């Protein structure tokens, strides 16, 4: 059972990684002059949209969190609206935090905001898919021994890796190498993406290695 | 409480660090070796084949071309100032102002020429004067002695002129007086240091210039104008004042040329340029690009001027002027003659022969210098010297051959000309390569001393860490970790002293102290090895226990990893020049990350949620504790503070697109009166707000109730200080010219108000030292006092009854209440503010220091200081809350993250008070707050400028003990305002709930150890940063950016370390002083 779940997790995560790689490669066939560095904003949009659609589809297909109770249609709609509001709020919050960390306040607002959207896609959207608009559950998952399934462990790892990647992405900005990827926010968004991808790959492996120690207690 | 051992321990650790810094510095920042020899007229430099008799009388080495010379130095005359471009439609204030120079160049192309004059860094005036007279390159360390100009020992142009009987007259900048004492025939010195004074020096020179020129009693006249430089410092180049100043210079040159005779050479030179902000000192293009203008009434040049002005090195002026005036070239000169000035008005061949002669003399002189230098010092690489020697001998040989051929007219002019040209080229090549070799290798290091200094600092860091881990109050700790190491050090110092006394060598204090430091460190580690009880227990045979402790140790290491990781990143950033340049953004980034990580870690450990799990699930947030909101608000406030503080940054030249903050310039430079008034009001309001905040804080904790002098000072002295600062700002920021007759009054006021602030602040600090108790004791033991205030006569009116009856009622109410509360009217002593007596003293001291430091900065930086206080306050609260939530077992030890965040905030505000670790960014103006004229000593301005530069280091280091005290102060729930802490007499032990800082007094041993640990942790973090800087400077000493980035950073960091450690000691000793006072207070209370 556990092995099968881990395999499913691995497949899903590899699909995610594959999608991100595709977002970097495929648009160049349809759109002349598309590169990640050159048309970074376009790539940010494409990547966010693709990753979020894929995540939603995976969530609908795999249904990792088994909610036994059937809910009404109105309830679903309200849940969906709540999710949208939460996502938007998280974008704003990320934007504010990024600015407080030293990003320019007025110039390149679009870049900063799209970067915030990307970060939200990698972190908040995952939580929303997995846990729903239930802050209670979020708090539980992001504390020690809080994960209750391998999906939640994976969520922990990918979120932390994405944020760490974005944080490390800020490091090359001051260097005087004059590379195109040192421009704000390219290094940070690339860092977040690489962190996310690394998290996606690390999570199943880590769970596999630690499957003896990981005992998920049910609620 | 053990006070002295703690202070002694910290002082000893500081000494260890200082010894390391000193040792490293002596190996890293070396001066060039100055040769004492000097050239003389009889040196055999004239080629033997040349007719010696052709030398006219009064000439040495080469025929004299001019009998007189006027050297006009216009300080900071950038090339753009002197260059005239008639095509420019709308010139900026500093452009096209020296039109007379352009007029001369166009109307008399063979008499006048303009050059780009390339100054060597460092572009500070004193170094440039040295370069302009000795013809050599001053090294980096000379920059530090900008305040104290000392006499030039090397052979120089002025010495040669005087030696050969010329009369030198000087007028202008009094820096020259220190550099050339008693060299001048006549001199008119004017004070140079007050950069706000644009006119004293220039007007003084103009008063004497023309009469002196007309009198004719001189051979060399030097006039050093400072107005342009001061104008740059005060207003920047792009200002109407600069246009006025340059126009004045233009008029001066015009009338000076009218007064000159035919036998006089006129040189107009800038000693360095200036940046866009009017500063100088570095090596950016705008700073090194000065102007040189040469003119004489007899034709100088063989040909007309080239299209684009030629660039000449600044040292080239020395041999040129020396040979033109017919005196020997100074011994240590490495400049190259400007040959076109020697061409005269003959034909091409004779001009070339003339040039060849001066090149030959010049090359011989440089060769002699290199030879004698290589005998004294080995720092010039031997193979390069050999190469230079080959070049030189080849050129000299060919020169001799050529001269022999010239004697016999066998060569036809065109061939001769080409051979002469190639020979001149060879001499030029030799001279330029020689200069390049010297420039390259005059940064000579002592690797052994550098490694030694590095090791000392690293060992001191390790010592700090270990001592902070194992400090206990026991006597054996002090004995084995303080007394014995000190004895070791003393023994070694005495032994070394004796050895020196026997061998009669000069005693090198630095070496002795570093050996002593090393010995005492060895002693510490040796005794630690023997004393460490854990080791003994570990060896003692219980493997499971060892295992457990191993795991615990691993966990402890992981706990450490989070703050230490941030520290590691900070240290790593010192090794990259880009990160050092961008440190103003790195420190806030790391601080924000540290605090966010702290919150994240608390959350991860489940400290933020209510432990018993979710009860109500209606709202998602319900399972959080209520304090979490407070904590999150604090973190948000901290982040906002950190972000806002970046609006006060100064710029470095390495980031060209950076614009310095508007808040850095003084209010006087604002032209918009309304904005000026608004800013002024804002700054004064902020000051008043700070005083109000401090007073309300003190009142909240009951420290404002007593009638001690100190409390009275806080009540009345603080507003007075603010008033004085406000008046000073008002006077200083008013426009210079608008006051007219009041000018003299203003001059007095500008000096008087700062002195009033200095006086008041020192009175406050003295009061604080004399009696730091801000406690108001109400003794209710003898409650038999009269109930009613005594009144005279019978109550005649209703008013008297109104006065009396409420008092009786109140009294009854009070006594009943206290009876109810205590269950019996027992006598107590109520002490208001005893619970925060330590912090109150520190807060008062910090406020006073803050006022002093704000006075030294420009007005609008008080905003940054307010942010500093706010951020420190927020950090303390976050620290307190986080400790409360984490539920630390040891309330007496300050966690590492708090110390590291404190130091990160300190370095963040170093940048946010408008500083950068480079020399041009030093706020020299601070030396003139309260001093109108020149200083008599160098100590006072150095202290003022140092206090200005390290303001945030000072404030954060003094306030460091607050990290320990604050959690105790905040123990009181905020709902119980102004509730006095009842200090029970020995028989009444019932009230225990609000002990606050008295908990510290309860266990004095723990308190002293806590202070020691805090000090050691602070020194450890400071020392680690310093170690990173030192290692960076050592490893990257051949890096391109070493003199521009790493060496200044190292200097600033080590100075900052010295200032911080001294202030840390002061802060801790202030706490000890308060502790003394509290002890005496208690003993008096018991006696009563």
From TrEMBL, chain A:
Pathway assigned to this chain's UniProt record: Glycolipid biosynthesis; glycosylphosphatidylinositol-anchor biosynthesis
Question: Where is it found, in Gene Ontology cellular component terms?
Answer: endoplasmic reticulum membrane
Topological relation to the membrane, as annotated: Multi-pass membrane protein
Q: Which GO terms describe its biological process?
A: GPI anchor biosynthetic process
List UniProt keywords, sorted A-Z.
Endoplasmic reticulum, GPI-anchor biosynthesis, Membrane, Transmembrane, Transmembrane helix
Q: What is its main location?
A: endoplasmic reticulum
Transmembrane segments in this chain: where? 9-29, 41-62, 83-106, 112-132, 153-171, 183-209
Subcellular location field: Endoplasmic reticulum membrane
Concerning InterPro entries, the annotation shows: GPI_biosynthesis_protein_Pig-F
Name listed for the protein in its UniProt record: Phosphatidylinositol-glycan biosynthesis class F protein
TrEMBL record, chain B:
Residues annotated as coiled-coil are none
> Which keywords are on file for this protein?
Endoplasmic reticulum, Glycoprotein, GPI-anchor biosynthesis, Membrane, Transferase, Transmembrane, Transmembrane helix
The compartments listed are: Endoplasmic reticulum membrane
Query: What biological-process terms (Gene Ontology) are attached?
Result: GPI anchor biosynthetic process
Specify whether Transferase is a keyword of the entry.
Answer: yes
Signal peptide annotation:
none
Q: Name one GO molecular function term.
A: mannose-ethanolamine phosphotransferase activity
What SUPFAM superfamilies does the record tag this protein with? Alkaline phosphatase-like
Q: What is the protein's membrane topology class?
A: Multi-pass membrane protein
Q: Where are the transmembrane segments?
A: 6-30, 450-470, 482-502, 509-529, 628-649, 678-698, 710-733, 745-769, 837-856, 863-882, 894-912, 950-969, 1016-1036, 1056-1082
Among PANTHER family, the record links this protein to: GPI ETHANOLAMINE PHOSPHATE TRANSFERASE 3, PHOSPHATIDYLINOSITOL GLYCAN
Could you identify this protein by its name?
A: GPI ethanolamine phosphate transferase 3, catalytic subunit
Upper taxonomic classification of the species?
A: Eukaryota, Metazoa, Chordata, Craniata, Vertebrata
């Amino acid at each position: 059972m556990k092995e099968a779940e881990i395999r499913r997790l691995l497949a899903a995560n590899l699909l995610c990684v594959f999608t991100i790689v595709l977002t970097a490669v495929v648009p160049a066939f349809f759109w002349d002059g598309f590169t990640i560095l050159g048309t970074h904003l376009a790539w940010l949009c494409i990547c966010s949209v693709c990753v979020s659609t894929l995540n939603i589809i995976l969530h609908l297909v795999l249904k990792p969190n088994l909610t036994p109770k059937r809910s009404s249609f109105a309830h679903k709609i309200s849940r969906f609206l709540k999710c949208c509001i939460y996502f938007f709020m998280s974008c704003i919050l990320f934007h504010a935090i990024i600015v407080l960390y030293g990003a320019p306040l007025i110039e390149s607002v679009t870049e900063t905001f799209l970067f915030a959207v990307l970060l939200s896609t990698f972190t908040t959207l995952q939580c929303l898919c997995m846990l729903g608009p239930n802050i209670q559950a979020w708090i539980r998952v992001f504390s020690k021994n809080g994960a209750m399934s391998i999906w939640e462990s994976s969520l922990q790892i990918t979120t932390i890796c994405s944020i760490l990647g974005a944080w490390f992405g800020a490091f090359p900005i001051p260097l005087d190498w004059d590379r195109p990827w040192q421009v704000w926010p390219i290094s940070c968004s690339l860092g977040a993406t690489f962190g996310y991808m690394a998290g996606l790959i690390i999570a199943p492996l880590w769970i596999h290695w630690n499957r003896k120690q990981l005992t998920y207690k049910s609620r | 409480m053990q006070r002295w051992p703690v202070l002694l321990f910290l002082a000893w650790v500081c000494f260890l660090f200082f010894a390391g810094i000193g040792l490293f510095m002596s190996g890293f920042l070396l001066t060039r070796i100055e040769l004492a020899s000097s050239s003389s007229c009889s040196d055999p430099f004239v080629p033997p084949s040349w007719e010696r008799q052709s030398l006219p009388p009064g000439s040495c080495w080469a025929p004299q071309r001019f009998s007189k010379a006027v050297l006009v130095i216009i300080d900071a005359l950038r090339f753009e100032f002197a260059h005239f471009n008639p095509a420019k439609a709308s010139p900026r204030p500093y452009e096209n102002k020296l039109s007379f120079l352009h007029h001369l160049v166009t109307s008399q192309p063979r008499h006048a020429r303009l050059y780009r004059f390339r100054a060597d860094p460092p572009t500070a005036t004193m170094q440039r004067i040295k370069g302009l007279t000795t013809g050599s390159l001053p090294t980096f360390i000379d920059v530090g002695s900008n305040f104290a100009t000392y006499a030039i020992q090397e052979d120089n142009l002025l010495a040669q002129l005087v030696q050969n009987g010329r009369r030198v007259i000087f007028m202008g900048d009094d820096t020259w007086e220190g550099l050339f004492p008693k060299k001048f025939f006549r001199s008119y010195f004017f004070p140079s240091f007050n950069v706000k004074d644009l006119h004293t020096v220039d007007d003084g020179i103009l008063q004497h210039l023309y009469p002196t020129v007309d009198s004719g009693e001189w051979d060399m006249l030097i006039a050093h104008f400072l107005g342009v430089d001061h104008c740059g410092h005060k207003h920047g180049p792009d200002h109407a004042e600069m246009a006025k100043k340059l126009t004045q210079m233009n008029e001066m040159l015009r009338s000076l040329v009218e007064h000159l005779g035919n036998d006089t050479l006129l040189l107009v030179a800038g000693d360095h340029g200036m940046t866009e902000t009017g500063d100088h000192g570095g090596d950016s293009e705008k700073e090194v690009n000065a102007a040189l203008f040469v003119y004489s009434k007899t034709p100088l040049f063989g040909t007309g001027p080239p299209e684009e002005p030629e660039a000449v090195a600044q040292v080239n002026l020395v041999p040129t002027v020396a040979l033109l005036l017919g005196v020997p070239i100074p011994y240590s000169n490495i400049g190259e003659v400007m040959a076109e000035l020697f061409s005269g008005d003959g034909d091409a061949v004779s001009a070339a022969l003339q040039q060849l002669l001066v090149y030959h003399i010049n090359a011989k002189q440089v060769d002699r210098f290199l030879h004698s230098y290589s005998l004294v010092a080995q720092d010039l690489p031997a193979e390069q010297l050999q190469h230079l020697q080959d070049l030189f001998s080849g050129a000299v040989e060919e020169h001799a051959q050529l001269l022999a051929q010239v004697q016999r007219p066998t060569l036809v002019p065109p061939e001769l000309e080409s051979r002469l040209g190639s020979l001149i080229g060879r001499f030029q090549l030799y001279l330029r390569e020689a200069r390049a070799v010297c420039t390259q290798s005059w940064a000579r290091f002592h690797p052994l001393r550098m490694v030694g200094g590095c090791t000392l600092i690293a060992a001191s860091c390790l010592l700090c860490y270990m001592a902070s881990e194992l400090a206990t109050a026991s006597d054996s700790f002090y004995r084995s970790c303080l007394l014995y190491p000190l004895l070791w050090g003393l023994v070694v110092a005495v032994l070394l002293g004796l050895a020196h006394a026997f061998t009669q060598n000069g005693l090198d204090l630095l070496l002795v102290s570093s050996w002593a430091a090393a010995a005492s460190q060895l002693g510490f580690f040796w005794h630690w090895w023997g004393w460490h009880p854990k080791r003994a227990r570990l060896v003692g045979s219980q493997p499971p226990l060892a295992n457990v402790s191993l795991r615990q140790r691993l966990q402890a290491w992981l706990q450490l990893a989070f703050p230490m990781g941030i520290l590691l990143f900070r240290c790593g950033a010192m090794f990259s020049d880009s990160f050092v340049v961008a440190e103003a953004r790195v420190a806030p980034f790391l601080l924000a990350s540290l605090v966010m990580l702290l919150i994240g870690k608390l959350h991860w450990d489940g400290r933020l949620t209510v432990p018993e799990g979710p009860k109500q699930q209606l709202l998602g947030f319900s399972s959080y504790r209520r304090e979490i909101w407070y904590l999150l608000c604090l973190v948000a406030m901290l982040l906002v503070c950190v972000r806002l503080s970046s609006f006060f940054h100064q710029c470095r030249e390495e980031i060209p697109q950076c614009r310095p903050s508007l808040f850095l310039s003084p209010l006087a430079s604002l032209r918009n009166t309304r904005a000026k008034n608004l800013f002024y009001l804002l700054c004064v309001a902020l000051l008043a707000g700070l005083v109000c905040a401090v007073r309300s804080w003190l009142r909240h904790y009951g420290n404002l109730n007593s009638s001690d002098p100190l409390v009275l000072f806080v009540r009345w002295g603080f507003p007075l200080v603010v008033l004085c600062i406000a008046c000073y700002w008002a006077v200083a920021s008013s426009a210079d010219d608008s006051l007219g007759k009041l000018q003299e009054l203003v001059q007095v006021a500008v000096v008087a108000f700062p002195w009033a602030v200095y006086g008041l602040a020192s009175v406050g600090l003295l009061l604080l030292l004399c009696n730091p108790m801000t406690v108001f004791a109400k003794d209710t033991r003898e409650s038999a006092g009269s109930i009613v205030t005594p009144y005279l006569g019978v109550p005649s009116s209703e008013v008297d009854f109104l006065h009396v009856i409420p008092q009786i009622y109140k009294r009854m109410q009070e006594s009943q209440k206290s009876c109810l509360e205590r269950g019996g009217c027992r006598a107590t002593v109520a002490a208001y503010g005893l619970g925060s007596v330590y912090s109150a003293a520190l807060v008062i001291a910090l406020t006073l220091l803050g006022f002093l430091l704000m006075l030294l900065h420009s007005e609008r930086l008080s905003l940054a200081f307010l942010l500093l206080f706010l951020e420190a306050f927020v950090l303390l609260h976050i620290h307190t809350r986080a400790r409360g939530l984490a539920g630390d077992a040891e309330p007496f030890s300050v966690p590492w993250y708090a110390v590291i965040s404190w130091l990160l905030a300190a370095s963040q505000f170093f940048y946010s008070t408008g500083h950068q670790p480079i020399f041009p960014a030093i706020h020299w103006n601070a030396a003139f707050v309260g001093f109108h004229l020149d200083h008599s000593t160098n100590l006072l301005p150095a202290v003022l400028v140092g206090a200005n530069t390290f303001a945030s280091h000072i404030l954060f280091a003094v306030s460091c003990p607050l990290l320990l005290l604050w959690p105790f102060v905040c123990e009181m729930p905020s709902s119980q305002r102004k509730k006095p802490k009842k200090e029970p007499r020995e028989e009444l032990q019932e009230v225990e709930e609000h002990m606050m800082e008295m908990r510290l007094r309860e266990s004095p041993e723990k308190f002293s150890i806590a202070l020691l640990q805090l000090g050691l942790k602070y020194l450890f973090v400071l020392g680690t940063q310093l170690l990173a800087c030192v290692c960076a400077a050592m490893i990257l000493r051949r890096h391109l950016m070493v003199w521009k980035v790493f060496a200044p950073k190292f200097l600033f960091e080590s100075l900052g370390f010295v200032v911080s450690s001294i202030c840390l000691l002061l802060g801790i000793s202030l706490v000890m002083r308060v502790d003394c006072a509290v002890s005496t207070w208690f003993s008096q209370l018991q006696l009563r």
